[in-house]
Amino acid sequence: MQKNIPNHLPRKRFGQNFLHDQSILQRIVQVLQLKPTDHVVEIGPGLGALTTKILPLLPRLEVVELDRDLVPKLIENCQGLGELIVYQDDALRFDFSQLSQTNRSLRLVGNLPYNISTPLLFHLLEQAHIIKDMYFMLQKEVVDRMVATPGSEAYGRLSVMVQYYCQAQALFTVKPGAFQPPPKVDSAFIRLVPHAQLPHVANDAKIFAQIVRLAFNQRRKTIRNSLATVISIEQLQALNIDPSIRAEKLGVEQFVKMSNSL
Fold first, then answer.
1. CATH homologous superfamily for 205-260?
2. Model-wide pTM > 0.85
3. What is the distance between the alpha carbons of residues 161 and 170, in angstroms, rounded to a whole number?
4. Average of per-residue pLDDT across 171-177
């Protein structure tokens, strides 16, 4: 049972919107299907609404929290529930590989700050090899982009990069009233499972990421124009890629082909 939590004024600069709806919290716990052997890391635990529910199910739980004022309140709220290890650090710069030397061992969960969600996702994708799965609460618009298919309006750079590294599944939508303070948009909970073997392997991950970024920098441009500085029309044609289409029409496999041709 959750203890009384000391008052804390959510800080806009940290993107703090605390999840408090008990039915949503319980739903998240059910989705996680935690086992005692799981190595779980929670990002942005805040005051511990979710932490206090999953900590008793595990021998230990590690959390990464940026707001130093929250840490003592979090620790107090989790007393007697299990072993809690707190890293007072910025998840955007945190090296998650220091927590595990085994491939595909970490299970990450969190209500991510919406103001840094996209760069944080890119940071985590770079460490996908040590991650078993990830479960995040995000702005619904971001989740829609992550699971979008080629040709759809939401499909873009984030879609390609996430789907290159992971299987992505949107699980459920959450209304603003589940948070304090309520955000101005709907949220969604997503599952990301890094591929055990990449379906399409880029020879150089940095070149692949650069190609994807350039292709979507100006969405209305054809790839002949958006990628003119790195790949020729003749190279595109040799790859059976139409130079006159836009990036949003290309799947992950085609981006990998372009990257590997360089």
1. rRNA adenine dimethylase, C-terminal domain (1.10.8.100)
2. yes
3. 16
4. 97
